[in-house]
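*Target chain*
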Amino acid sequence: MMDSFLGNPFVELVPVTFTTADRFGRIAAALKAKGQPLPSNDIWIAAHTLETGADLLSYDSHFNVIEGLPWVPLANP
C-alpha cells in the first residue's frame, strides 16, 4: 500500500535536512515559550511545510498557533 501511495506522481517524499531540524527546534522553542506545546510529529510536519513553501491542509486546529505557517483548515467530514 505504501509503495502505491509513494508511486503516485502527486506524492513527493521530502527528506529531513539540517534546515528541517533547525525549523523544528525554532518552532518547538517558540511553542514552549508560549506554553502551547504540540505533538512532536506535528512540529516536524510544520517544519517541512515551512521549508518547502507548501500549504498545510489539516483538520487539526492546533496548527493555528504556529506563526507564519500557511495552514488551511479543513472542515471535519
The chain has a mean pLDDT of 94. The first helix runs from residue 2 to 6. The chain is about 45% helix and 10% strand. Residues 18-73 form a domain with the Rossmann fold fold (CATH 3.40.50.1010).
